[in-house]
Structures are given as C-alpha cells and as structure tokens.
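FAQ: What does the model actually see?

It sees only this:
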Amino acid sequence: MISHPFVTEKATIQAEMNNSLQFIVGINDTKDRVKTELEKLYGVKVLTVNTMITSKGKKKAIVVFEGANTATELASRLGIF
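And it is asked to produce this:
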C-alpha cells in the first residue's frame, strides 16, 4: 500500500536527474507489489524499485521510471511540483 510521496530537496533533485520518485509504503510491501501498484494506479512503467527502512521505522521506496521525464510528469499530477 502506497501511503504518500516522500518529498525532500534531495528527492526533488533525483526526480529531475534520475527520473525517480520516493514513496512511503507499507512495512510489509515487497518491491514487486510496489511496482505493480504504481503501474496500476498511475499508468506508468516502472524500471526498478529499491526499498529501505528509515530511521523512523517507515519503509521508503525509491522508484525509477522507464520513460523520459515520467517522474516529473507524475510529480506534477500528484502536486509535488
């Protein structure tokens, strides 16, 4: 379950440079589950998903998209920038 986008200055720079966005997801979510949920919800193609546990005990997913500028377009749709 995708909770919300994780927005920081570093995440914004990565969206522009690496075509990636960061999301807070459920602690028990797998990479495949995050990938399929994002593709289904937003109609985008996901290249890779990396996950990590934050210092606050939440799970963060860094998602890299296939198409050029997909991350910035999705961020605009979500109201991030």
